[in-house]
Amino acid sequence: MQLIERINRQLTGYYSRESRAMVSLVLVFAALSLLFSLSSWGRAVPPSIGTPLGIIHEIPDVIGHLLFGMLACLPSRQRPLIVTGGLLGVVLDADHLGRLIGFPLLSRASHSVGFLIVAAIAVGLFTRQGYLKLRVTSWTASAIAAAIVVGHIALDAFIGYGSVPMLAPFSFTEYTFSRIEGLELEVIAFLLVLAARQLNSKAMP
């Protein structure tokens, strides 16, 4: 929490308050995903260290997650939140970093219901306590965090990478979503944010 406040102070003077809040949210979300991936420690053989060329091959995937994250947040009707939703969809893949640098971690531990719950609660609490100075209620912030996880899995399923450890950290057995189920998941993500907006219409102009 002190780290979040420090980040906000460092950003003061460079960006607007709204922009600082969005940057802080993206950093918090990435940190949560990376930390959650540690729950899979020892469940995978360390791979060879990744190369820049391998990262370049992921560019289409990054663009897809950006678009699906933005689409999920369209009901917010707030341009900064829509853009941030796209960035959140990308940085959720921070759970790949540990395996990329050679640790014995599963690369998709955060693609799970467990992380959805952790992210929704953490983002909601940080918003309620004022550490994330978002122009939404804590309930809406939680709904957005949950929608991003659902939307991220949706894109993975849609492009044929729909096998995820849904019950992590309690079980790392993978469940596979079809492309059609991926589209259905994206609709669910969209509806989560829409429902939150309807419930908090006064807080989301």
Keywords:
205 residues, mainly alpha, 9 helices
Q: Report the span from N to C terminus.
A: 28 Å
- The quaternary state of the protein chains shown equals single chain
Proportion of strand residues: under 5%
Shape: globular
Radius of gyration: 16 Å
Decide which structural class fits the backbone.
mainly alpha
Q: What is the share of helical residues? A: 55-70%
What's the story with the biggest beta sheet?
Answer: 2 strands, antiparallel
Give the number of helices: 9
- Please list the strands of the largest sheet in the order they lie side by side: 1-2
Beta-strand segment tally: 2
Order of helices and strands: HHHHHHHHEEH
In terms of per-residue confidence, which ranges show pLDDT below 50 for 5 or more consecutive residues?
48-57
Question: Can you offer a commentary on this structure?
Answer:
With 205 residues, this protein is mainly α. The protein has one domain (2-10, 17-43, 58-199). Helices cover 61% and strands 2% of the residues. It has nine helices and two strands. A two-stranded antiparallel sheet has the order 1-2. Helix 2 packs antiparallel against helix 7 (113-128) and helix 4 packs across helix 5 (79-91). Residues 48-57 have low confidence and may be disordered.
Element layout with pairings:
Elements: H1 2-11, H2 17-37, H3 52-56, H4 59-72, H5 79-91, H6 97-100, H7 113-128, H8 138-158, E1 163-164, E2 175-176, H9 179-199
Antiparallel strand pairs: 1-2
